[in-house]
Each structure stands twice: as C-alpha cells, then as structure tokens.
Amino acid sequence: MRIKVLITFFVSLLTAQSFAQMLEDEAVEWLQNLIRIDTINPPGNEYRAVDFYSRIFEAEGIDYHTAESAEGRGNIWARLEGGDEPGLILLQHTDVVPAEEEFWTIEPLSGEIRDGYILGRGTRDMKGLGIIQLATFLSLHRSGVELNRDVIFLATADEEAGGYFGVGWLIENRSEIFDGAGVLLNEGGGGSRSEDGNVVFGVEVTQKVPVWLRLNAIDIPGHGSSPRTTSSVTRIVQALNILLENPFPPRIIGPVAEYFSGLSVDMDE
Asked: What is the pLDDT at residue 84?
C-alpha cells in the first residue's frame, strides 16, 4: 500500500509539472503571436486581439462575450463562476503605443526571442501581463478547482488614448461585466532583478492623482500694439508662473517608504 501511495504521489507530481511546463510553452507561443498582431493605437484595431482570444476560448470550451465600442475597437470578456466572495477581475488592454522603427534593432512586432527574453512592442505594456492573466484564467478552468469567487477575464481597447472605447465605454454600456466584482488586478506592477539575482515584485497600493485647476481672468479688450501689464493674458501667465515656481513638497507615504526600505536591503551603500 505504501509503495502504491508513493507511486501515485510521484505520478501526480510529474503530471502537475508536465501541465505547468505545457502551459508555460503555450504562454510563450501566445505572447509571440499576440505581439505580432498589430494593435498600435491609433488606430487600435483591437478587434484583431479579440479574434485571437476568441479562438483560444472556443478551443477551451469557455463561454465569452465581445463588444465593439466603435468600428474595430474590440473588447472581450469571460467569466469562471465560483462562490460568494467578491469577484476578481483580471483586466488588461490590448492596444499598444506606436513604435519608431529607426530606434529598434528588431522589427517591433516580431515577438523575437533573444537571450531568454521575448522582445517586441507591447511585451511590457501590457501584452506580457495579459498573457499571464490568460494562462492563470485557463489554468483555473482546466484544473476544475472549486473557486470561492467569480474570476473575470477582461481584455479592453484604447487604454493608451484614454480608455474611451475600452473600460470607459464598458462601464457605461456593459456594466453587467462588473456585477459582484470586488477586486481588480491591472497593470502597474512588475518584476525586476536585484543585484543578487532575486526577482523583486512591486505591489501597487495607491496612485498619485492629478489636481485640475481652471483659471479665469476678465479684463477690458486691448490691442497687441500696446500691451498692458494688467491684461487678462498677462495675469494668467503670472499665475501659472507662481505654480511653476512653487512646486508641492515631496511627501513619501508609509507604503512607499516601506517599499524603498525593502529594495535597499539588496543595494550597495
């Protein structure tokens, strides 16, 4: 009986390892293929990425939905149902910024592998993370594990130009995607290697937010031939100069200080 148990354990271990390797190999191929899909924004044409993901979901037997916010601006989502805990959204965008080829040593949309790295426009922002989300989503689906919450895969358009045809449009027109969701994982973090070779992952807990100011100056009409120091234009410029000459003092909040402290452990003085 003990031998049988040990054999079962090692077979299970080998099976798990082989499945993990298979998924890793698939992920490499998926990322290369996704990089080769031109979704440079403008114009976006994210429907091409939607077609890519659709074929994978169909092969896996996963129900999915798509929507175009405008011609060619595709969005796709799928849901694995689970328990009553707040749902988890894996959010990505499929558009990428333009690439000036004269500054590249490879074709930007090649997905070339060099020295163990996959290269190409969008590998970091954010097709690489998008494929990690896909692999995670499919791993949960294939395993049949009982989930304590819904997991939603969501790939959207137009992040690089404001999100008006992506998340913004979906919130207004497909709000059911977000029903029951309580946690959302998006881009913003990433791994880097420390000096001793360890991979360090940043965890984002907050973001800076902009302060929008509207300045109004009212004055009597004038003429460019005899400018006045009290004109509305001059006063607006003076006000802007005051802002530029008096920047807000830097403020390091607790989580940021803890992050820098953690990084400094592996750094030389």
From this structure: 97
